[in-house]
Amino acid sequence: MNVAEIIFSPTGGTEKVADIIGKHWSENPVKIDLSDGSADFGKCEITEQDMVVIAMPSFGGRAPAAAIERLEKIHGNGANCVRKMQGRSTD
What we know:
Layout: E1 3-7, H1 13-22, E2 30-33, E3 51-57, H2 65-71, E4 80-86
Parallel strand pairs: 1-2, 1-3, 3-4
């Protein structure tokens, strides 16, 4: 099982939270930075055996549109996921 952190963290705070969570499953999780507008997220492949931490801030209960658009390009293939949206409870 590989661990991937998919993050959108313009100021670095959300990335710190994702790092804390990701380190519980792996010493060296793979990072996919949705803040990088030049990356080709369509080439990101995650397997069904992987664990994924998705972390991004929310503003008024909404995630940034750019982060969602980039996230939708990633092929998740049924991987398990943990998500954390700062600013709002996801319970």
